[in-house]
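Bug #77: duplicate submission created two jobs. Keeping one. Sequence:
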Amino acid sequence: MIKPSIVEVIGARVELRHAGKEFVGLCPFHADRHPSLSVNEEKGVFLCRSCGEHGDAIGFVMKLDGLSFPQAKRALGMGADCPPRPPLTPSRKRAAELAAAWVNTQRAKLNVTLAGAMEQRDLADEIGDFELAESFDRELGALQGFYESLEHPRGAAEMLALREAIEGITEGAEVAL
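Kept job's structure:
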């Protein structure tokens, strides 16, 4: 998918002038009296230094015209370049269901493991073993990172690649499923 020039897209709606490596103009997203909108052709992004609006050519059209992502792409003539999504075959659907079930199980087990680590850290604090408590804090941070990664689809896909390691961490945790 080839994006149109951001300078051309924004320049068709806002008067831009060259300023160094960028172009500047009045921001259309607020009552701008002094040019605060910067457009960087090389990076393909815009930024208003007053109101904070920022994004790429598609985002600019979406915000200015109140369009959805697909509508903005069509408005910019990018609709035909999008490759179609592969069909959802029964085997792909089954693989997704299995992955989702694994993720849910691991999250439940990590929940139990997190609770145990918190309890151990609290006990270490109570007996005054701050070095041990700090060790449990580091463990908690790693476990919470795994837990949060499993919350998001992209993170879950990456976690599947670490399946053996995660299952090793959650091995002793018992959950009712």
